Amino acid sequence: MIYCVEDDSSIRELMLYALRASGFEAEGFPDASSLLEALNRSQPQLILLDIMLPVMDGIDILKQLRRSPATAHIPVIMASAKGTEYDKVAALDLGADDYLAKPFGMMEMVSRIRAVLRRTSGPKQEPPLRLGLLTMDPASHTVRANGARIELTLKEFALLQLFLEHPGQVFSRDQLLERIWSTDYMGESRTVDVHIGTLRTKLGPCGDYIRTVRGVGYRMEERT
Question: How far apart are CA 2 and CA 34, in angstroms?
């Protein structure tokens, strides 16, 4: 089941038609209250959430979804006619799984939904990851640096997990944007640099494990 939250009834019905024609069950909602009421009854595989909504906008809804243990795991794709970098960064940093800029085609919407479901479906029994004094337990979503627990945002955690899963491998900024943010940022690579800088600071001495490869990107390896 896919939940679509869109206040424009004509757009909402078109989205529902495209999803059902593609083999999905889908239900539409015009606002936050109707969505939250439906979530109390049953949970969907994914929520397609417009940012510009009456009373409570999509960003505030996303915050509420991610704060609640009951809904924090539900994949969310944000949609908005506002195509600014701020909207993308705000939505993705708050835990959205992808972002669609209006106007978008129905085939693109279905393709993005399928891609997110592939990434997020199925149980994950991931073993702990270790590098030097740094340990990560994906199952409990915890990170420790030199024994101290470190609190990371969703994107910081995903970045660190990617590095720990591929020690020594160099990732370009474009590769990191594609792997972690799963969207076409079109030159917004400074977003990666900002997150890398914050991650290094939070990891303390272990932040030195993340090395800058000038002219290429970043890699993680233990200092010797």
Answer: 14
CATH of the domain at 177: 1.10.10.10
Are 82 and 141 found together in one domain? no
Please provide the DSSP assignment of 153-191 as one string: -HHHHHHHHHHHHSTT--EEHHHHIIIII-S--SS-THH
Number of domains in the chain: 2
> Which own/partner contact pairs does 184-193 have at CB distance under 8 Å and 24+ positions apart?
185/88, 188/85, 188/88, 191/85, 191/89, 192/218
Beta-carbon contacts of residue 100 (< 8 Å; ≥ 6 apart)? 48, 77, 78, 79, 80, 108, 109, 112
Q: Residue 68 corresponds to which tokens in the numbers above?
A: 């609640």
CB 64 within 8 A of CB 41: no
This model's pTM is above 0.90:
no
Spell out, as residue ranges, where the chain has pLDDT lower than 50. Answer: 184-187
pLDDT of residue 189: 65
For residue 79, give its domain range.
Answer: 2-120
Here the CATH number for the domain that contains residue 8 is: 3.40.50.2300
109, 139: one domain: no
H-helix or E-strand containing 99? strand 98-101
User: CA 18 to CA 136: how far, in whole Å?
Assistant: 40
State residue 123's pLDDT score. 54
pLDDT of res. 6: 95
Residues 19 and 81 in one domain: yes
